Amino acid sequence: xxxxxxxxxxxxxxxxxxxxxxxxxxxxxxxxxxxxxxxxxxxxxxxxxxxxxxxxxxxxxxxxxxxxxxxxxxxxxxxxxxxxxxxxxxxxxxxxxxxxxxxxxxxxxxxxxxxxxxxxxxxxxxxxxxxxxxxxxxxxxxxxxxxxxxxxxxxxxxxxxxxxxxxxxxxxxxxxxxxxxxxxxxxxxxxxxxxxxxxxxxxxxxxxxxxxxxxx
Length: 216
Description:
Layout: E1 38-41, E2 44-48, E3 55-61, E4 68-83, E5 86-101, H1 109-114, E6 127-137, E7 142-151, E8 154-167, E9 170-180, E10 205-215
Antiparallel strand pairs: 1-2, 2-4, 3-4, 3-10, 4-5, 5-6, 6-7, 7-8, 8-9, 9-10
């Protein structure tokens, strides 16, 4: 995957593929790597997301499922709040300019179209964010994550299942988020807004696979 990011057609994010509730930073190691920094706020620990190892993968398709597109988008920055080995919150910022198609990279007609006003209007809205507001434990590994997803300046709550592991100072989390793109004003070839599209109708559902690595 070459460390690439899963928000279709982002449609997406994600992040942008991951998470919220950030407190006031009291201590920061300014000499630490930008991709792996540990911050402490009282009894809470903020662990910076490693942007080189984390990836958000998107998947979109026609309504009939015959034409499927998959690609990546990169996390520009983010942090997870972990307390006593449990995910408590966090934030993820996704750089929409980094959208890529799995088979053809970042310089192709599909990606250029995804950046247009038809889809994500990246020039006006270069970043998407996910802010985690609640984490409910199903068991030690499986969680239900609730947060606010912002795309194109529009924010809606989302809830998705995720798995999380904390081991040797490394947090690994992955989840699957499916959104209705039209809620974020991504209307291109949606049957909700256009008639007589026939086989060209695109599914309103966008699937994101979020893989996050954060380190002390």
